[in-house]
Amino acid sequence: MKILVIGPGGVGGYIAFRLKKCGKFVSVLGSMGEVEKLKVKDVNELEEVEFDELNGKYDIVFVTTKSYHLDNVIKFLPKYLKDDGIVVPILNGIGHFEKFKNFNYKKACVYILSNKENGIIYKKTPLFYLCVEDDEKLREVFSGCDLKVKFSNDIDKDIWKKYLFIATFAALQSFYSKPTGWIMEEKRDEVEKFIDEVIKIAKNYGVDLSDEKQKVIKQALNIPYNSRMSMQIDFKNKNKTEVENITGFLADKSKYINEFYDFLKNAQATF
C-alpha cells in the first residue's frame, strides 16, 4: 500500500515519519515539491528519516496542510490519488470537509503538540491520539505501528470534541495574544461562554457535546501554561492564519463569537 502525505508540517511531518519508521511506503509532498527526508525531534530523541520517491498514484493520501492551501491542493489531488484511493484530511476545523465532497474521503482529527521550525519537526510531549473514520484500508495503514489510533464509528462527534477546544482557545489566544494558562486565569468566564456557544452550534448539527464542557476546561488546566495554538502563533508572527476555517465557520452562527471573528479578520487584513 502506497501512502502520500501532503503538508509536512507539525502534524503531517510527524505522521509521515512514524509511518515510514514502521516500514510503510511513504512519500511526502510540500509547498516546494517532493520532500526526500525530514528530521524529527520526538520529545528528546532526534532522528532523520528518508521517504520513498514520489511515484505514480497512491492508495491513501493524508492532507495535512493549512486550510488556506486547500483550494490549490484539491486541484492537483487527482494526479496522485488512485481511482479507489482514500483521502484523509487532518486539519483543524469542521467546514473544510465540504471541499472534499467529490472524493472518497474519511474524516479524521488528531491530538498532538508539535510544530516545525527551521526544517525540523518538534514533538514536544508524548501526546499523540488520532481519531479516524473506521475503514479497512486505514486499519491496514496503521497496522504494526506503535501509534494510538481510534477507528471511530462516530467520527463527527470526535471531530467536534476536538474542535470545541481548538475553536475556543485559538480565538481567545489570538484575540488577547496570550497563552492558554493566562486565558484560563484571566478570562475564564469568556472561555466558558465561548464553549457554551460552540456546544449550541454543534447541537444544530446533530452532535451532543453537553458532557464535554468540563473536560475541555480540565484539559486546558492540565496542559503547559505557555501552550499556544498555531493560529495564535501565526497572528503573533503576522503570517496568514486559519481564522476563516476555525473561527469564521462559527461566526455567522453566534453573535458572541462573531465579535472575536470580526476583530481577528480585521487584524489579519493589516498583515
Brief summary of the model shown:
The protein is an alpha/beta fold. Helix content is 41%, strand content 25%. The protein has two domains: 152 residues, NAD(P)-binding Rossmann-like Domain (Rossmann fold); 113 residues, N-(1-d-carboxylethyl)-l-norvaline Dehydrogenase, domain 2.
Under CATH, the topology of the largest domain can be stated as Rossmann fold
CATH superfamily of the largest domain: NAD(P)-binding Rossmann-like Domain
Number of helices: 10
Question: What is the number of independent domains?
Answer: 2
Compute the CA-based radius of gyration: 18 Å
Helix content: 40-55%
Flag low-confidence runs: none
> Main beta sheet, described?
5 strands, mixed
- Strand order in the largest sheet: 3-2-1-6-7
Can you walk through the features of this model?
A 5-stranded mixed sheet has the order 3-2-1-6-7, covered by helices on one side. The termini are far apart. 41% of the residues lie in helices and 25% in strands. The mean pLDDT is 95. It contains 10 helices and 10 strands. The protein folds into 2 domains: 152 residues, Rossmann fold (3-Layer(aba) Sandwich), CATH 3.40.50; 113 residues, N-(1-d-carboxylethyl)-l-norvaline Dehydrogenase, domain 2. It is of the alpha/beta class.
